[in-house]
Amino acid sequence: MTILVGYLPTPEGAAAVDAGLREGALRGERVIIVNSPRRGAPVDEHKIDDAAGAELLKRAREAGVDAEVRQPLHDDDLPETFEQLVRETGGSLIVIGLRHRSLVGKFILGSEAQRILMEASVPVLTVKAEL
Q: What SUPFAM superfamilies does this protein's entry cite (predicted)?
């Protein structure tokens, strides 16, 4: 089984990695850190480079967890990207970080996190960054 962790280089992403690595160590499961840039975007400030990926893998090793970093491209359907990874890897849990958004912001823009919560075929653990 595998734990999938949604990661962006933000405090919420760091909190998700921390929680995912704790879960991986607790369950004895492999962790895949998913940093999914949008297909066709000329610049994506959330895409991590090799050094950042290596740092995430170092943290996993220090936690005693077997891990890898994947950067699957997605169009406008990030929840489906996670669902494909669940099927492909035998995923048992998805871990994502949540950021505070106003009700109006959620209504107007929708929420990828909300869709992951509602549509995922496996349990989803959500975490918040410490204030």
A: Adenine nucleotide alpha hydrolases-like
**Of the candidates 104, 131, 128, 116, the residue with the CA atom closest to the CA atom of residue 14:** 128
Cβ atoms of 127 and 112 within 8 Å: the answer is no
Distance, in Å, from the CA atom of 34 to the CA atom of 83, rounded to the nearest integer, reads 12
Distance CA 99, CA 58 (A): 25
Q: Tell me which residue of 6, 79, 85, 71 sits closest to 36, measured CA to CA.
A: 71
What's this model's pTM, rounded to 2 decimal places? 0.87
In 3D, which of 75, 92, 117, 72 has the Cα closest to residue 31? 92
Tens of pLDDT, residue by residue over 41-54, are 544 567 888 999 99
- Is residue 53 within 8 Å of residue 67, measured between CB atoms? no
Cβ atoms 130, 43 nearer than 8 A: no
pLDDT digits (tens, 9 = 90+) for 85-107: 999 999 999 999 987 766 655 55
Q: What is the pLDDT of residues 33-42, one digit of tens each?
A: 999 866 555 4
The predicted pLDDT at position 41 comes to 52
